Amino acid sequence: MLLNLFNELRAAKVPVSLRELLDLLEALERQVVFADMDAFYYLARTVLVKDERHFDKFDRAFASYFNGLQSLDAALEALIPEDWLRKEFERLLSAEDKAQLNSLGGLDQLLEAFKQRLAEQKERHAGGNKWIGTGGTSPFGSGGYHPEGIRVGDAGQRQGRAAKVWEQREYRNLDDQMELGSRNIQLALRRLRKFAREGAAEEFDLDGTIEHTARDAGLLNIRMRPERRNAVKLLLLFDIGGSMDSHVKVCEELFSACRTEFKHLEYFYFHNFIYEGVWRDNQRRMSERLATVDLLHKYGSDYKVVFVGDAAMGPYEITHAGGSVEHWNEEPGYVWMQRFMDTYKKLIWINPYPQDAWKYSTSTNLVRELVHERMYPLTPAGLEEGMRFLAAN
Q: Quick one: pLDDT at residue 170?
């Protein structure tokens, strides 16, 4: 039956191989897990999924696999023997609950009653003690109070009393096409790494100690070395205000992840598009600015540059002098972007707006042309693709 699970995972585009399926079967034969469906779920996910971004796809495929089984009796007999269920019940239920465990005559009668009521019921039901619904004391449904039973759906407030939960998805934000959280931002940023040992010698060097001790005829010679750090230099420029207000949370997470991953990080803000000045303090952005020309001279061409913005503005803000909505810019915005492109060979634009909508925005298309189509969506897949370009030689 695990072949069907394997097929569901492949259909959901989870990159799983036959080798991993065989590893899962071997783990089951060796009883790595036994009599615990939660443990089986975690074991299967650990063995079959090699990248956290596929956890949500795995959860959906796992639920689809069990929901798609034609015979509940055969499924329970093949996957969850009755003694497994009884052990699980005993683990989850209180002493009072255990005393009521046989209220329906045992597991067989529970399943038969469930199928009979499912066939008889014709409408939604809430409360009560018989029909499949939400609340109440029926052993079938969601959000009710009963010491044993089968949960159906997820409509009611959970009381923590269902014996099994089949469709709990905990990793929705890890899908490739979902917006980012701090954890999966860090995973994507790690593609942009170039390690070097810089700074004071403060880390114990085991190999060097062994080598120099051997050279000194066994006299202990402890060696230290600088810590290995990511030597990539990153310059971040964030669009702030206006339409970007709705993307503040994800931009904060991106900024936090970058500060964690990169030792050499510089950041500045701009509004809508890059002009002759940028700033670091949004409270003093009109009075304390750094001239963009000074930024271009201060941070060398070895920096990787990432613009973050939705590129949503009037086209004239890019193409015309005086186009800025906040001040009079002597030179058009596109002139400043060309200067960035001439200075930094590794420059990309990250757009938090859905990629499907980019083609409907004139300003977005203008920005894409200016950065030579190196605009990427703010999703795990898009961010990884952008980091891959920055990391390439």
A: 54
- In angstroms, the CA 383 to CA 368 distance is 16
Q: Is there a single domain that holds both residue 204 and residue 342?
A: no
Q: Write down the pLDDT at residue 77.
A: 53
Q: Same domain for 252 and 323?
A: yes
Specify if 374 maps to a domain: yes
Long-range residue pairs from 200-207, CB within 8 A, at least 24 positions apart, any chain:
200/226, 201/225, 201/226, 202/226, 202/227, 203/227, 203/228
DSSP H helical segments within the chain, as ranges?
2-11, 18-29, 37-48, 55-67, 72-79, 82-92, 95-99, 107-120, 182-189, 206-215, 248-261, 292-298, 316-319, 333-343, 362-370, 380-391
Q: Which residues of the chain have pLDDT under 70?
A: 1, 35, 66-188, 190-202, 226-230
Phi, psi of 356 (to 5 degrees): -60, -25
Domain of residue 370 covers 232-391
Same domain, 214 and 262: no
Indicate which CATH number applies to the domain containing 272: 3.40.50
141 in a domain, yes or no? no
| Distances in whole angstroms, Cα of residue 196 to Cα of each of 156, 164, 261, 263 | 54, 50, 14, 11
Whats the size of the chain, residue-wise?
393
- Asked, for residue 178, whether it belongs to a domain, the answer is no
The reply to whether 320 and 219 lie within a common domain is no
What is the structure's pLDDT at 174? 44
Q: What is the pLDDT of residue 74?
A: 52
